[in-house]
Amino acid sequence: MSLVWQVDFYRSPQRDAAGQVLWELLICDATGDFEYLATCPQSQANSSWLTEKLKLASAENLPDVIQVFRPQSLSLITVAGNNLGINVEATRRTLSLKKLLQEKQYPLVIDQPPPVPLPENLWGEEWRFANISAGDLVDEFTERPIPFLQMPEFLQPINLGLASNVPVPGTIIYGGKQSLRLARWLQEAKPASLNYIAGAPDGLILEADLADRWILATFENSEVTAAAQIYEQRKQVSHGLHFLLLQPDDSGVTYTGFWLLQDEKYYLC
């Protein structure tokens, strides 16, 4: 079994006795059984210092993977990881680390850029909201040959404590001839959540990678808006769990991609 660390390296709210800005390295594992903390003045906050501290923290048992959620930390940690032969993964799913930072009352906010439209060559033909009961969700998609399938075990309804009759909301896109191309793009984009945002017009915003935001759809139809509001209400019952399903058409015979998602505000509360 691979050893995975969750790592943050960022400016600390604390300062040293001389008033200098400190940078803090915080390491933990997914279980919270292992923690490591080190600080340095901003003048020493570089990949060389970070490499040495990672070696020191490991006690000769280096991790196989380092997970990083903060875009500002990624480049330095990647260099340090390369120095030590450790794979570095950019992901928002660093729950143990974020909870540690919350307990320390350290900033977790990531600057969010304005959402940008999906490239025209990826547009599907239609889309709609849907829901599947929590008890049927896993079997419905794991038993089908789906080229792009993202269903992490920790997001499966049973592991979130959801009753089998809870409706899990989702969005279905009928991609037509662009279905496979869109699925490849989505897989590379690393979907995290898909949220309804009220506005003029209303929209569906895909949160992806560490801080990317994409406009998947816009609408001004009152019936669609009402369905979008129900979609968000169902998320409150499903602990933020929802899905994105990509099909070439509405026949239900072939699926191109399926992504199980969760709003971060639910798993950090």
TrEMBL record:
Limits of the RNA-binding protein Tab2-like N-terminal domain: 4-104
Pfam families referenced in this protein's UniProt entry, alphabetically: Tab2-like_C, Tab2-like_N
InterPro entries with a match to the protein in the record: Tab2-like, Tab2-like_C, Tab2-like_N
Boundaries of every RNA-binding protein Tab2/Atab2 C-terminal domain copy: 107-262
Protein name: Tab2/Atab2 family RNA-binding protein
Organism: Okeanomitos corallinicola TIOX110
